[in-house]
Design brief:
Blueprint (H helix, E strand, L loop, with lengths): L7 H6 L7 E4 L3 E5 L7 E7 L6 H7 L2 H17 L7 E4 L3 H4 L8 E5 L9
Antiparallel strand pairs: 1-2, 2-3, 3-5, 4-5
The structure holds guanosine-5'-monophosphate.
Guanosine-5'-monophosphate (5GP) binds next to strand 2.
Length: 118
């Protein structure tokens, strides 16, 4: 799949649209979801242009992949989600209900989240 440079997360990465940032390093940006589905709802995105988790896993460098999951662990810990737990979700493609075609992980928490798929 060809990466769309005009997707909303590309605009956030370029600073064209603001975000409520919770974490940033050389490879990763994380910010609050604008339409939170739980008391805590963050989005974690790589800074590289990857459409989906499949694209990221297949084509990102080892350094990018390591940085991404280290960031997820840091965010969960720094935001106090370790003890009570959280859920990470990656939506991919049409059946996954992916709206924004830039790879992202949702981190959700702050309450019991119920069954995984309703
Ligand atoms: P997807 O369905 O692609 O996995 O999720 C995309 C997520 O991006 C949705 O939860 C949606 O609320 C969030 N989102 C869409 N536009 C924006 C935006 O401009 N800012 C932020 N912070 N989140 C957004």
């Amino acid at each position: 799949m060809i990466y769309d440079n005009d997707n909303i997360f590309a605009k956030i990465l370029r600073g064209e649209i603001p975000c409520d940032k919770v974490f940033e390093d050389d490879h990763v940006l994380a910010f609050k979801d604008i339409n939170a589905q739980a008391p805590v709802h963050f989005l974690v995105i790589p800074k590289g242009n990857y459409v989906s988790q499949e694209d990221f896993g297949a084509n990102a460098s080892d350094e990018e992949i390591t940085a991404f999951y280290r960031a997820v662990a840091k965010i969960v810990s720094e935001q106090g989600l370790d003890a009570a737990g959280s859920r990470t979700i990656s939506n991919s493609g049409v059946h996954g209900g992916q709206e924004v075609p830039h790879y992202h992980l949702h981190i959700l928490g702050g309450r019991e989240l119920g069954r995984m798929v309703e």
